[in-house]
Each structure stands twice: as structure tokens, then as C-alpha cells.
Fold:
Amino acid sequence: AQSVTQLGSHVSVSEGALVLLRCNYSSSVPPYLFWYVQYPNQGLQLLLKYTTGATLVKGINGFEAEFKKSETSFHLTKPSAHMSDAAEYFCAVTLGGGGADGLTFGKGTHLIIQP
Amino acid sequence: DTGVSQDPRHKITKRGQNVTFRCDPISEHNRLYWYRQTLGQGPEFLTYFQNEAQLEKSRLLSDRFSAERPKGSFSTLEIQRTEQGDSAMYLCASSFTNNEQFFGPGTRLTVL
Structure:
């Protein structure tokens, strides 16, 4: 079974500062990893994903994440925060290889951008 | 718009009533997923279809929950004899592979 831990239910950064949202996972098999963003009263939008290959993945809106197998981590970063980045962010894991499995999500991190 | 759609967006019901939600996936997607999201939590996987076959349903929360996808296109999620604890956002997602799931806007259920 997989699990996801997101450290920090709330993260506050100043506009223009570095954004770092932490995600650690556990999985008995090589995982596929995802970051989703959710704006109030909306569904989830995929920011980026890691399946295989390059461990540094780039996503939309200037976000990127690095898969570190030795640390079982998949932290999300953005060099310079923008007010429009304020939202809820979810890290998720699923089994790799195309098996029939839903996503296992973390509890989410609420990102607050201070002007 | 060719995204995932869900209907209704909001549903208020009284305890003990049955409710049914509909999900229309992206047309070429053969996989369809249902999730439940409660306040302050991440989505929780409930069930999964590949075409019309329900390949995973052990994660449905109780026997009051059931889902169908009769022709491999749209899907319905039914909750019988609703309880106040069923109040949540119910999300549907679809995919062509398991690499990337596209989510709908959700149906918010309030049980009074």
C-alpha cells in the first residue's frame, strides 16, 4: 500500500520568494508521483508528474519537483511566488506500470502568499 | 469544453434519502475514477472503471455506495440512505492511461 505525507498543512511565503512544499511517500513498488493544485470550489488541476526517466520534472506555472528515491521525497518548488499561486496543493502517488489503481493523496498544503 | 463534467454541482438532501451523481469523462478516456474529499483532507479513492468493467470497488465506503458505468461512457455514483457523515465533495476523474487523471469540478453533497 502507498501513503503520502505532506509536511506543513499551511505554508506562508512572501510574493517573489521561493516556494517549497514538501512531500514524502512510501510505496512497495516504483511509484508514479503527482502534484495537483486545487482552487476554492474547483476540481484538481495537474501541475506535474513523475513516471520514469528524468528525476527533475517541470510543470505548469513555473513549478518543478525532483524525485529523490533515496529520500522517498518529491518536493515541489517555484523560484518566485506570485499572488495567483495561493491555493491548496496535493501530492499523490500511484503504482507505476499501468496497474488499476487510484491515486493516494496527502492531506494537502495550503499555500498563502503575503503581499 | 471537452473536460470532465459532473452533475449536479451541489446537492442538499435529508438524512435517509438516496442520491445519485453523474460523471461524464473526457470522450476518449477509457478509465474513470471516483473520489471523496472531506473538508481539510485530500481526495480518497473510492472506485475505478476501465470501460464498463468496475475493476476496483473494495474501497467503496460501505454497501450503501455503488457505482455504474453501463456503456463505458458516463458513470453514476449512488449513495443510499444518506447519513450526515456522507457530506463531502465527490470528485470524478478520467484518464487514458494511469499516468494522468483529469478531474471534474466535483459534486458537493450536504446531508441535513
